[in-house]
């Protein structure tokens, strides 16, 4: 397990070093990125509507491109989901995600490869710093909850996935490493019954004696898990003590659950 954490730390540390170098010229880095976004997306529907090609500085960008609500972007996203290209981004959409719906209902969010790379550029410096400052994290397992709970995985009418595993956000190189360090197996994302998923997730977390890191996308999400743990405390304790209670019908999940409860 330590070797996996060390491998992860080695891969994310250069991102921290790059981030720290960028801080020495943060305005220059941000303007360079904005220029790249304007250049690569000037021929998109959105880019043509707001004249990306003739924007020459940050102030012009602010004056010409207003802040958009999700409702304002929704027609563009519908066109992307229907299979149209070059709408909001020149890069193809590789997947969609659905938000949890706690603010104004669930929303469909498109992801591109560059967008996911940007996610890694944001989270990897933080993760590298965390592993350097809290080294005992590397002695145990982790729980990541980036994607919201879904009732089921799906496809758009154009065949693009709606939903990704949390490990996918870390990129192909690290997805396997992250998976090996998870307290809750990624296969649990396939559980369509939310109540079953919530109970089994709580059971896995309680059964993981060496849980050292929890990272969630929403505090409310964690509070719901803690509430489940409190409300189902007697059943959870009994199931862990017996090493078999509440097992799902799916043989693979049942095997995983037995392994977790037994500490193996």
Task: Characterize the structure shown.
By secondary structure, the chain is mostly helical. The protein has two domains: 2-114, no CATH class; 136-151 and 170-262, no CATH class. The protein is 53% helix and 10% strand. The protein is built from eleven helices and six strands. The chain has helices at residues 2-22, 26-40, 45-49, 58-64, 70-81, 113-133, 172-180, 194-207, 219-231, 233-242, 251-262, and strands at residues 93-98, 108-112, 141-145, 154-155, 161-162, 211-216. It has a two-stranded antiparallel ribbon. A two-stranded parallel sheet has the order 3-6. A two-stranded antiparallel sheet has the order 4-5. Strand 4 and strand 5 (161-162) form a beta hairpin. Helix 1 crosses helix 7 and helix 8 packs across helix 9. The longest helix is centred in the N-terminal third of the chain and has 21 residues, at 2-22. It starts with a helix and ends with a helix. 16% of the residues are buried. The model has no long low-confidence stretch (mean pLDDT 85).
């Amino acid at each position: 397990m330590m070797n996996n954490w060390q491998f992860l730390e080695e891969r994310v540390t250069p991102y921290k070093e790059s981030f720290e170098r960028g801080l020495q010229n943060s305005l220059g880095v941000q303007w360079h990125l904005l220029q790249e976004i304007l250049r690569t997306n000037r021929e998109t529907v959105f880019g043509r509507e707001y004249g990306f090609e003739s924007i020459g500085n940050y102030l012009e960008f602010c004056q010409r491109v207003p802040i958009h609500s999700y409702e304002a972007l929704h027609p563009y996203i519908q066109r992307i989901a229907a299979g149209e290209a070059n709408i909001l981004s020149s890069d193809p959409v590789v997947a969609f995600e659905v938000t949890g719906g706690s603010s104004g209902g669930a929303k469909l969010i498109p992801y591109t490869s560059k967008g996911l790379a940007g996610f890694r550029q944001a989270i990897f410096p933080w993760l590298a710093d965390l592993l350097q400052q809290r080294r005992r994290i590397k002695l145990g397992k982790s729980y990541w909850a980036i994607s919201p709970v879904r009732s089921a995985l799906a496809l758009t009418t154009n065949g693009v996935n709606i939903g990704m595993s949390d490990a996918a956000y870390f990129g192909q190189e690290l997805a396997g490493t992250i998976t090996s360090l998870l307290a809750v197996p990624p296969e649990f994302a396939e559980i369509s019954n939310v109540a079953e998923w919530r109970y089994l997730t709580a059971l896995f977390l309680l059964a993981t004696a060496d849980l050292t890191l929890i990272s969630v996308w929403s505090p409310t999400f964690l509070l719901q898990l803690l509430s489940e743990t409190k409300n189902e405390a007697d059943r959870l304790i009994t199931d862990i003590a017996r090493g078999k209670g509440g097992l799902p019908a799916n043989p693979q999940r049942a095997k995983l659950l037995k392994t977790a409860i037994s500490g193996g």
